[in-house]
Amino acid sequence: MTPEPVTRRAFLAATGGLVVVAAVAGPAGAGRSAKSAELSPVVLSSDLYASPDPQRLAFAIYKGSRPSSSGSAKLALAPPGANEGTVYATTLQKAGLPKGRGVYVADALLPTEGVWNALAITGGKRVPFAVQVSAQPQAPGVGAPAPRAASPTKADTLGVKPICTRKPPCPLHAVSLSEVIGTGRPVAVLFATPALCQSQYCGPVLDELLKIKGPYEDRVTFVHVDIYRSSTGAELSPTVEAWGLESEPWLYTVDGAGTIVGRLDGAFGGNEMTARLDALVGA
User: Fold this and answer.
1) How many domains are there within the chain?
2) Which domain, by its residues, includes 195?
3) Residue 154 falls within a domain, yes or no?
4) Distance CA 80, CA 43 (A)
5) Is 217 exposed, middle or buried (0-12, 13-18, 19+ CB in 10 A)?
6) pTM score, two decimals?
7) Each residue of 80-102: b (16+ CB within 10 Å) or e?
8) Strand pairing of 4-6 and 51-63?
9) Which residues contact 124 (CB under 8 A, 6 or more apart)?
10) Domain identity same for 187 and 125
11) What is the pLDDT of residues 160-211, one digit of tens each?
12) I need a surface site. Which of 2, 37, 177, 249 has the fewest CB within 10 A?
């Protein structure tokens, strides 16, 4: 669907001409009153960067302290210093995610770094928030070689304990990333910490991946990497440090040559993961 322009008047009416800074990938419900009925968008994409190509922008909507991502929504974006922008359609991704905690996703053009004015247009309301766009990606991007650092396994934990905070632990710790990336077989790696995830999306995302991976297991090696070195959450695992990840969860798909061909971050449902896996195997 072709994005629509949004007028200067619409932005000024909703924002009062001010940039309203929203939480970016923060703890679920943080700073919101349980009694409040106000809507507040939360940006879940943690690594948006200036690019001439469309990129995935994901956000959730809260009503007070309660997640309220339901129904349709559009996203309006204006670059730094401007009050005119573009309106994008969004898709509500909710397969495998808890009720009300779906994720709105738009393919947005963000060619300029800085703080963008944004509006979530839903239920007849225009709710202002802000989107931070960096000059460069902080995490490995599509087209880059995947880091070949080792990941914790049952045979070699790399000092990480536990290697999986899911209960019960998932089965995706049999092989190390250093053994499988670039060996001719595609790899899908999920970075997520079910027990310590600030946004509380990690557990549902891992459970959904375990649910949908069956049809791909004969062609793809699946690996799960927990985020922290211990259950205190005080220190990142060496694998997460090697990949330079500053948030969670992340799903990366890597082709047989070791090149990153897809990534998802912040929160994502089964449909988005399936699409990345289909692209990985050429389905």
Assistant:
1) 2
2) 177-281
3) no
4) 17
5) exposed
6) 0.88
7) eeebbbbbbebbbbbebbeeebb
8) unpaired
9) none
10) no
11) 999 999 999 999 999 999 999 999 999 999 999 999 998 899 999 999 999 9
12) 2
